[in-house]
Amino acid sequence: MRRFYLLPVLLLGMTTPDTAWSQTAPGATSETGTLITRRPASTFGRTTTDARRTTRQFGTCVIARSPKLAQQVVEAPVVTPNYSKMLNRLAADDCLGEGELRVPWLLMRTALFEALYVDQFGRGGPTDFKAVPSINHLAGYTGEIPGWAGNVIALARFGECLSRADPANARALLMNLPGSASENQSFAALTPRLGGCVLKGEKLTFSRSVIRGAVAEGMYRLSRATNHRAEAAGATR
Predict the structure, then answer these.
(1) Is residue 166 left, alpha or beta, with left meaning phi > 0 and alpha meaning psi from -120 to 50?
(2) pTM
(3) How far apart are CA 107 and CA 104, in angstroms?
(4) Do residues 69 and 211 touch, judged by C-beta distance below 8 A?
(5) How far apart are the C-alpha atoms of 212 and 183, rounded to whole Å?
(6) What does the pLDDT look like over 73-100, one tens digit per residue?
């Protein structure tokens, strides 16, 4: 039986069930490699690493089977009335095989960013974003922004900052399987950059899932912006 549960929003500063990432690099595991598949995801097991792998595979399947809807989700402000409906439609997609998966909807959203990045830039993508203007993460929002939506925006800005600071390792992080030794190495390489991307005076604790998701959004948006600039420059010649 397939069961996919979208849990309430994950707030910045709140750790998810997987081990919170701090300034200490985690121990390496024996598994390496990437997980790229368009088949339905089946839950790997009961650990948080298993859940992260299942969510990643689910996102990859979704963008293959429902690409237009997935694109609408990542481009839409999270406060639109239709946003929850779109997420629930994706959760009801036939992309979870046997098993049960519980995930905060914020991580469902960032799983789509990661899947889109791997699909569009997995074979090679930009790793220099100096010429790209700052992303307008408020695009599409009007009026007062709820606190939880503000957290989503703050996380997106954090991911953009981290992606700009070390795009090569940010890319490597997304290309590695969750829980692998290679992923641990990418986290360790990015660790010195974390503090510089957190607003002064704030002390935030992030899980691996949150950091990886923030990087996925940052790398995807910056890579798309780079390509759009290149296309525009080519069109004017």
Answers:
(1) beta
(2) 0.79
(3) 5
(4) no
(5) 10
(6) 999 888 887 888 888 787 666 776 555 5
